[in-house]
């Protein structure tokens, strides 16, 4: 158990010098850094040779990098609700985006990571994007900055400044361990707010700026990219419009990377680094059609970097299949906080935090309900190392595109380009989906060839469907009721 | 203006005897009685010769009966949110049912009838079914009984007892005028609660009991009906299962009628009747497929009976087209409480409260979004005296059936009956709907023949669509954004 190991390390580092051997081991601090729409496609330590992310790469070099970490839904509020509750959105009630006119909230009476940690003696703070509700379910003792969904002037766009504002919390003379929830707005697409209050992401034909602005941000050195050199991932079209947007996206990632660097520097300066678990992840994949709001890998296979105190295998790589539903159980286990396992849909992977193999971690489940209130497209998925099965529960509609994706020059140009193809898929296939999709990820990692009706794959389909239905029953999926005769 | 007239009456009745001529006129009391799933099909005063509703008939005889009153959405929580805010559900945020696992709420910061009345000096109380949220948007000073959605043991099933529990509020020695929100659970279908907490309405082949129980309810004389004599409305199948269910429904209506009678008796005993406006209405039509959750007339053309103090035309009939979005503006106007008209989607029909003709009240709008969280089926409608146009915004799916309707023996037997017809429509037509439906209500009052593609009706279609889009823009319909290129 990592927890016990860490406690031993903590004893060695902190307690023995003070000869306070009999005192109870202090609980570790927790810092959870959540990026907004950051895929694994744009990280040096995940293999991108162009983008500069030295601070995130350093975090991976000091800790463990996860190769098979998955969000359960590629939508901001629902994904964060899963991260913080250990329950799928279909169980905690956060079916879609929180801000008006969408208005989704978790069910009153629900419990989450900050509340559970506070009850165990932690001081808790959040800074930056929140985007879940109600406060009673997600209570933080201190709100260092509220952030605001879709607010171009949000502090969440200024990650170095965010870190600076969190410094007093990190350095506070308080004997309690702390939990800091640090949620940047980068690298989300940028928007303006129209006179009637609605957001607009419309910049066509110019690329969306992804929060980049001429005057820059305090403490950030703008890192600019040449559209000619960016890496176009297979799910995107290699067009000038897409390359221009990827360059902007990279710049936003390099900005957030500097915020992570500043936060780590402040943690070190506070003297707390050696007793602090730092987690970096993203709510969902990049904000392009084909990733965000889908259950395809670009939407849900996400960066996860964990640097644990006393890490015995710095720079290790973890290939267990873990999901955001596992995060709250894992952090609670690491903190030594008990919680009934039945309250979670996920489970703790604390035993693999420092890179030790995790036998049996070979499948993850996804559950997407809505994104915007107008975007009802419930999907359920199971993914193994070799296959993915997606159940589209309302396949009669075209797959709905979020405002930021619909207005993206990348999508608009693909629509107008006349090829009828987007990335590896015909646009028609992307928009019009059957009730079941089945992909052989070994031969078709880009999920382009649906094998659901292939006789040769009937057994796989049957097996995965059975697992998925078991998962749905266990996690109390309300959509199951629509399938009873 | 009714308000001025009522103030004159109030002066004559209450103030002159006390010689307090210079005192400000007292504001009227308001009692809003809301039934649950009660259609116009089951009321004596609306022409049903079988059902016994003497107290509601007496209310109509003392006041005004509305022949063209419309809910804007045939779903409980959304409809009540419209009643209480004067805004369509797509504007106030209550897109679907409030209770878990659905979890819809109105937007924080919204204002509603009880809050506005309290700010104007009213004391306010609610009793029975609430089913809207949050409390901050729908604040009542006193909660005489919370009621509970889908709770078979709710007080809302015992309307005479409910009236008795409201008596102290009516008779309180308090100089302030009052607003009582009296929301019965009758004649909703009855359910049991399964061990896992989910409701079940499954009684097939026996009829759903509609809350009727062998031991009866305090103060209620059970009025039983012979299935052979009930009136089967045209939208329902004339089958033994349906007749048996209608008999149960009638019994529940006769029960609620006795609650209304008891409430009126207590109002009279309190000495408040002559200064109290009493409104009776239903949130939506009867709980059978073809009515509830649809925008067809059986779902939204509803009872509305208003008995105003000093009514000059007892027993009058009002044929203005009014909707539940008009109710809050109307009651506020009657109470003399100002509110900016721009905050409402509806408008006051106070000038027609005692039956005077209302020129220009010739169209109503409907807006349905969801019911259960799994039942996304956004529809918008405009209805005039001669036509109805329904815009189905997600027509690719089969029309979803609510649990209580899907489990009804009436529906199950129609499915199994093999005729393929339900009421006046083929089942396939009922379940599978085009993007636009257009009905000529003069020749086809049962909305069976869709004329949307009829060249002879192109002008009507164009005109109604234009009106509907104007309404949607004015009422800030979020779904409009999905239609922008």
Descriptive notes:
Two copies of one chain form a homodimer. Chain A has 13 helices and 18 strands. With 485 residues, chain A is an alpha/beta fold. An eight-stranded mixed sheet of chain A has the order 5-4-6-1-9-10-2-11, sandwiched between helices. In chain A, helix 7 runs antiparallel to helix 11 (409-417).
Give the key terms.
homodimer, 485 residues, alpha/beta, eight-stranded mixed beta sheet, four-stranded antiparallel beta sheet, 18 strands, globular
Lateral strand order in the biggest sheet of chain A: 5-4-6-1-9-10-2-11
**What general outline of chain A do the C-alpha atoms trace?**
globular
Write down the Rg of chain A.
22 Å
Percent of residues of chain A in beta strands?
15-25%
State the end-to-end CA separation of chain A.
Answer: 46 Å
Mean pLDDT of chain A: 93
Question: How many β-strand stretches of chain A?
Answer: 18
Give the largest interface: A-B, 28 and 28 residues
Oligomer: homodimer
Short description:
With 485 residues, chain A is an alpha/beta fold. Chain A contains 13 helices and 18 strands.
Give a topology summary.
The structure is a homodimer of 485-residue chains.
Chain A: H1 2-15, E1 29-35, H2 54-62, E2 64-66, E3 69-70, H3 76-85, H4 89-92, H5 113-119, E4 123-128, E5 142-145, H6 159-171, E6 178-183, E7 192-193, E8 199-200, H7 240-269, E9 276-282, H8 297-300, E10 304-307, E11 316-318, E12 322-323, H9 327-335, E13 363-368, E14 379-384, E15 387-392, H10 403-406, H11 409-417, E16 421-422, E17 425-426, H12 427-431, E18 436-440, H13 458-474
Parallel strand pairs in A: 1-6, 1-9, 2-11, 3-12, 4-5, 4-6
Antiparallel strand pairs in A: 2-10, 7-8, 9-10, 13-14, 14-15, 15-18, 16-17
